Amino acid sequence: NAGVTQTPKFQVLKTGQSMTLQCAQDMNHNSMYWYRQDPGMGLRLIYYSASEGTTDKGEVPNGYNVSRLNKREFSLRLESAAPSQTSVYFCASSEYQPQHFGDGTRLSIL
Amino acid sequence: QQQVKQSPQSLIVQKGGISIINCAYENTAFDYFPWYQQFPGKGPALLIAIRPDVSEKKEGRFTISFNKSAKQFSLHIMDSQPGDSATYFCAASKLRGGSNYKLTFGKGTLLTVNP
């Protein structure tokens, strides 16, 4: 049982490039989330999808877009990457609580 | 506005000692308080969680103490081991309720247990 799978695990981008981070879960959960983790800042919610077909902004949505492709998959897109978006990105899923996390995508923007 | 405040930022204890991490929350609508454990290079994983209808929950060496009137909860790790060295996050949410079960995280505590 893979749980929550994120791809890629590492990525380096140049400022202005675009990229999509992929997330898939195999637990049949309705809700999925995208967080970013920065040193000393904890985990901050970027976007979430309470159920298939719905998405909502979290605490730090600026510069990001999301797509809930189906019940399993929830992608995060950076349209024009900026150095401030250098971070570790985590996807999570849940059926109410608790949330189950993937192992993250480490993204560096030069 | 930070809704969950966690302290300390870092903690060093000796093997066999007690590790204590504290959190305070503001939103009285929260009714689910989990602690997550994160090892380097991995995602956070649920360690233990509590609801406000009990004041304490114990699972092995890990105990959550909850004070509803003070809006505070804490994680106690008894007989701390080097393998417990990790970053710990407290969080708060609603257990159910549509979009309101988003987790609000504290900023994390880096625990180091020396052998």
What brief labels describe this structure?
heterodimer, A: 110 residues, mainly beta, 7-stranded mixed beta sheet, 11 strands, 0% helix, globular, B: 115 residues, 6-stranded mixed beta sheet, 5-stranded antiparallel beta sheet
Care to describe what's here?
The complex is a heterodimer of chains A (110) and B (115). Chain A is 0% helix and 53% strand. In chain A, strands 2, 4, 5, 6, 9, 10 and 11 form a 7-stranded mixed β-sheet that branches. In chain A, strands 1-3-8-7 form a 4-stranded antiparallel β-sheet, with no helix packed on it. Chain A starts with a strand and ends with a strand. Chain A contains no helices and 11 strands. The mean pLDDT of chain A is 94. Chain A has strands at 4-7, 10-13, 19-25, 31-38, 42-49, 56-57, 64-68, 74-78, 87-94, 100-101, 105-109. By secondary structure, chain A is mostly beta strands. The model of chain B has no long low-confidence stretch (mean pLDDT 92). Chain B starts with a strand and ends with a strand. Chain B is globular, with a radius of gyration of 14 Å. Helix content of chain B is 0%, strand content 51%. Chain B is mainly β. In chain B, strands 2, 4, 5, 9, 10 and 11 form a 6-stranded mixed β-sheet that branches. Chain B has strands spanning 4-7, 10-14, 19-25, 33-38, 45-50, 56-59, 62-67, 72-77, 86-92, 104-105, 109-114. The A-B interface holds A 4, 31, 33, 40-45, 48, 50, 56, 58, 90, 92, 94, 96-104 and B 6, 9, 32, 34, 36, 41-46, 49, 89, 93, 95-96, 98-99, 101-103, 105-108.
The major beta sheet of chain B can be summarized as: 6 strands, mixed
Instruction: Report the span from N to C terminus of chain B.
Output: 38 Å
Overall shape of chain A: globular
Task: Figure out the total of helices of chain B.
Answer: 0
Which radius of gyration of chain A do the C-alpha atoms yield? 13 Å
Mean pLDDT over all positions of chain A: 94
| Class inferred from helices and paired strands of chain A | mainly beta
Beta-strand segment tally of chain A: 11
The overall pLDDT of chain B, averaged over residues, is: 92
Q: Sheet bearing the most strands of chain A, described?
A: 7 strands, mixed
Please report the number of helical segments of chain A: 0
Output the helix-strand order of chain A.
Answer: EEEEEEEEEEE
Q: Give the terminus-to-terminus CA distance of chain A.
A: 36 Å
H and E string of chain B: EEEEEEEEEEE
Give the oligomeric state.
heterodimer
Radius of gyration of chain B: 14 Å
In percent, how helical is the residue content of chain A? under 10%
Find the structural class of chain B using helix and strand composition: mainly beta
Strand content of chain A: over 45%
Biggest interface, chains and residue tallies: A-B, 25 and 25 residues
